[in-house]
């Protein structure tokens, strides 16, 4: 649990990686489509994708020469749970201020 | 917006810092109370607190010799908004899979 949260939060602490998530939330996309809007070399971009794949939030499948990525929302749901839990405790405590 | 999310997600990508948030969600606490459960030198712990203060999620007030920390939930609400937005898009798209 702890290390999953570490890797998820670390993965989200980068604007390129959040942009990939924002694109994939709308639907699966190829690596080249995901890379196109980013002014960086493909190997650099691939390292960002790898960080996202390591958290489990992005998965990819290769068919022929095209690698297509999609979102697996499970880690997102888990992190939302942690944040919502903190907020819940904060909002319901008696000495709030 | 982008850089706020960067600093918040970066701050949360560490178990010591998340433990501080979990404690402060229950109520304000002094630096020494927050430090007590963590097996690290005070200066190391203070650097973690500084990272949290830089995101705005932790604020502190010094009275005499005691510095008391509390949560400001605004950054938490903002990040929850970003995550919920991604999830919302994902859950409502037509080609979901």
Automatic annotation (TrEMBL), chains A, B:
It comes from the Bacteria. InterPro entries: ArsR-like_HTH, HTH_ArsR_DNA-bd_dom, WH-like_DNA-bd_sf, WH_DNA-bd_sf. This is ArsR/SmtB family transcription factor. SMART domains: HTH_ARSR (SM00418). SUPFAM superfamilies: Winged helix' DNA-binding domain. Gene3D superfamilies: Winged helix-like DNA-binding domain superfamily/Winged helix DNA-binding domain. GO terms for molecular function: DNA-binding transcription factor activity. Residues 1-91 form the HTH arsR-type domain. Pfam families: HTH_20. It comes from Yoonia rhodophyticola.
């Amino acid at each position: 649990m702890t290390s999953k949260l570490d890797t998820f939060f670390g993965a989200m602490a980068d604007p390129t990686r959040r942009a990939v998530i924002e694109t994939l939330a709308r639907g699966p996309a190829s690596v080249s489509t995901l890379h196109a809007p980013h002014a960086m070399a493909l190997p650099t971009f691939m390292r960002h994708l790898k960080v996202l794949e390591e958290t489990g939030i992005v998965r990819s499948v290769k068919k022929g020469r095209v690698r297509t990525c999609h979102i697996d929302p499970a880690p997102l749901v888990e992190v939302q749970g942690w944040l919502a839990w903190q907020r819940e405790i904060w909002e319901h405590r008696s000495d709030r201020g």
